[in-house]
Automatic annotation (TrEMBL):
Coiled-coil residues: none
Family, as annotated: Belongs to the enoyl-CoA hydratase/isomerase family.
The protein, known as: Enoyl-CoA hydratase/isomerase family protein
InterPro entries: ClpP/crotonase-like_dom_sf (IPR029045), Enoyl-CoA_hyd/isom_CS (IPR018376), Enoyl-CoA_hydra/iso (IPR001753), Enoyl-CoA_hydra_C (IPR014748)
One Pfam family recorded for the sequence: ECH_1
Record's signal peptide: none
GO MF term set: isomerase activity
Amino acid sequence: MATAAAGNSLDEARMASATELLRAIGEGASEVGAVLIHSEGKNFCTGGNVKAFGSAEDPGAFVTDLATTFHEFILAVTRAPVPVVAAVSGWAAGAGMSIALACDIVVGGPGTKLRPAYPSIGFSPDGGMSWSLPRIIGPARARDLLLTDGVLEGEEAARLGALTRFVADEDVLAEAREIAGRLAKGPTGSLGRIKRLAHESAGRDLPAQLAEEARSIGECAASPAGREGVRAFAERRAADYSGTW
């Protein structure tokens, strides 16, 4: 999604390509058990290409089109039926922060820095930041951070839940790879249902969520992965989910 040569600012072509890859997983066209998002260079993603914003003939239309493409990618991340793991080293600013907040598991370290960055150029957020951040760190803290363009250092970001795993800086990518690899070997259908239940819970009351949980766990029990998991438990062995869903 971003290129190191451009300071890891958002790259529209790469973003569109990543969106299509994620959609292919959802359509069953790709046998992928987990997705890892990371960057080259010292920063995760420093946001959009501000120079391009300034040079556009119609900045409003240009940024709206870019945000629309970006939002398709964010939706693909959240709708992917597999866990999406982010290795966030260095700065995750603007759109980079939005990407990190959209992922299921976010690994960072002491050198990780999250910053909204939008007020610094007179913009409001995109990439779902105004939706995800209040749900992760709380509405009041989110308003404070967004309005003041504050910086969440790695340790505080972990304490507030914006980072879900906190390791040494040099271990960020290795930790994220290990998690993604382990999840990829797990019960893919079950993990996808867990992700969907968690995402959709905010829009349901408890009775509706309980009904959806009952439907989902029944589907898991009837699936090859569910049957293998139950057999493995009864036989006191590690489950082998290869070739199951």
